[in-house]
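FORM 7B: Structural annotation worksheet

SECTION A. Query
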Amino acid sequence: MKKQVTQDKDNERKFGIRDSIAYAAGDFGCNMSFALKGTLTVFWTQFMGLGDTLYALLLIIVQIWDAINDPLIGTIIDADRRIYKRNKFLAYTGAGSVGLLIAGALCFIPVPNAPHIIKVIIFLVGYIIWDAFYTVANVPYGSLLSLISNDTGERASLSAWRSVGSTLGNMLPMVILPFLIWKDRTDENGNVILDESGEAIQDLQGYNVFFAALIMGIIGFIAFAFMIRMTTIRVTTEVKINDTKEKFNVFKAFGNFVKNRPAVGATVAAMGMFIGMQGSASAVTVLFQTYFRNPQISGVVQLFSMIPILCFTPLARGAATKFGKKELCSVGSLLSVAAGIAMLALPITPDSKGLAIYIICQLVYNLGLGIYSTVSWALMGDAVDYNEWKTGRREEGIIYSLHSFFRKLAQGAGPSLVLIIMVWLGYVGEKGGAQSQEVAVNMRYLVAVLFLISAVLEYIGLALVYNLDKRTLEVMNKELGRDS
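SECTION B. Predicted structure
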């Protein structure tokens, strides 16, 4: 396929802050649906009373749906040759956003007294529906980055602002929700029940989670609508309606993806990032619930630790242009590795001093993560170009869908495996906040190990696998006839 740049030639509006804010709104909308996923484990094991091991197995089962869902939808989008009024990626994103209005809440239907089989059905059906609509919205949304601009600096800006949208989309539920969904356990007389150490036991309020998911679905839909309305497509793909379309072969598509080193490297790094963000989410929740004894402040602490991400965002475009995206991300991942080691080795005690050390480690960790996350989607935009450079084919949908599949594999399999480890370390979901002191200490070290593994995977993907350094990127863009 031949790429045609419509900017200037067709008098399209020049790239500006409007594009960046609009693109950020898209990931804000995604995270209005996705942010509550970290609450799934405690909701289903503590509030719904689903067995820990059973829930972990169910999480693995729904990843089978991901294996079908993501590449299938990506292929459908690539194969769709209809002429849309504006752009097919915008059309699919809009369709997905409509489904996400209520799909997120389907994962949190509060029926704690229902039979186990009903709970299992509710979880499986709710998750599958949510996952389908999320993919319909998220895969084409990711593909838009390479179509809004083909300029390296502008793509870095879009990726950075997408990170802003993601961060803000996480901040809102992260800070507000803990105060709404956690409450001291009381007896029939309203007296607060204390644990063996004299601290209040806090339990999840499942009904509040359900209503929060509904409200977040509405907010997410509004954000998507804003993004779609304000987005300008400047890079178009020439479509020949009468071309003979090669029949899709999943094994061939996967083989092509594996040969795309930038796509594989960016995907390994993203899987590492989500092991840290999603895999550790349940352990972090239990850490604050049982070790620091204050789950309400968990959101505030995580918000504070995200300051480095927001601080680096305005610098991302200039830094990526000057030093190169691969080079910049590799340094950032090393910072995160150092912070992970410190989190494991330093004396993080269950008091204000230990909490302060934890926060400092998180600040350093997120500085490294921020450097990577702000340009992570620009890395995938370049990976799409790399595929065209090496094969002559431009396959945004299938590349992003396979990337999304492996990300969601980390997001799904990661938490299930972590939950199994938590159970092995003594965690019992039905006890809620009344875990033993040994379990609390185990969570402190488990969280540190998960963050360290996450950072190491990021470094491997970015520094050792991803091969589009600044010089190679310039050569690729020159041979493709694009700005570098």
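SECTION C. Observations
Strands lie at 3-5, 182-184, 202-204, 235-237. The longest strand covers residues 3-5.

SECTION D. Sign-off
Analyst initials: ____
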